[in-house]
Specification:
436 residues, mainly alpha, globular
Length: 436
Amino acid sequence: SPEIGKPVMQSRLLTRLRQFSFRPRATRNQVALFAMTYAGYVVVYLARKPVAVVKPLLHDDLGFGAHELASIDSAFLLAYAVSQLSLGQLATLFSVPQLLGLAYLLCGASVAAFAYTTTIGQMTLAWGLAGFFQAVVNPLLVIWVAEIFPAAVRASVVAFWQTSQQLGSIAANGLASMVLHWSDDAWQTLFCVSGVTVASFAFPMYCCARSSVTTANNTGDGNGKACVQRLGFLGVLRLPGTFSVAVTYHFVKMMRYMCMFWLPLYLVKHQGFTTVQAGMFSALFDVGGVVGGIATGVFVDHALGGRMLLACVPLTACSGVFLMALARVEGTLSIAVAMIATGFTIAGPDSILGGAASRNLCEYNQEPDCTREVSGTVNGFGSLGALVQGYGTAGLLSHFGWPGLFGMAGVTLMASSGLLLSAVNVEKRHFNKRVY
């Protein structure tokens, strides 16, 4: 009867409202650990941005050409990818606190050593080592954050945490501008200050990881040795859903880096913007990314019940559509909308696939001890995408122009979204088991 049905409907409505609330509330310990890891990753960008900022000075002071400067970036990206692909092996040799402490210390030392280099070979070696040592920080911290918070809010928390990348980039640019303005030995001082700052976080991050509840729950002995089940590279890729996530993340990362590095040039050469205007407008891509990453995390937790991979399928496809449209739109407003929309839709997959998705995949496959190995493999595929785009973008642009470049990039993203369907099926089976 209507009288009986009314209370039932009210009960269902209240249940739905509770699902959209931001409970459970974080404890003080969770907030403190989140803040520490967030600050720790902001600092890592001090070991990532300096070369990009001082390239004009290296060109003028030391006479390095474009190809020589590109080799420094390539060494960094290649070492970064190799390190992440090796994370599973490293996790069998060191505990998480030890890995984090060593990563910050050795990365900071490598960055500071760059200040004393004078040849392209020395710079390539120092910057490659900086990339190798810092590469393990992101997957370890993302897994740590994902394990600190319950699954009900995991996507939202990780999405908020990923904004440390944008804040770190801003902080690194600000520090570089300040040091280069006030110092006589401009670029050398910048690398010394950045390196010392990064290294100073080694002991705090070690102590924080050592004392955290999450680390204690994932240790194999009283000294905090990581308990890792070694699957091997091929074993990780055979884990259901991992290969599709890794390949999709490879292409998502490739296209995101293409937009980050090439949008200013596109705006100048294809749309007729001035250099200043292009710099301002290219920031809209990052603005859309910050909003999109957070919005995706909140939507996944409070509308999809934590189904992260399901959300990535339409977002990846839509990012391809907007990227294709970007090369064909005209007018300032249309270009701005297309850039924001592209950044908004690609940020969610970038944040999820390179973040908490690895943790969830191991949970879905009942392999909790393989989290770091899976995360390292997925992020390694992503880093290879960032490396490949540097060479591939220039070649495609010279042969097909901007419309052809963005068109192929868009088609690639749409095809990548289809690759995720096998991982979505793994996720679906997991949630069906929870229901029944």
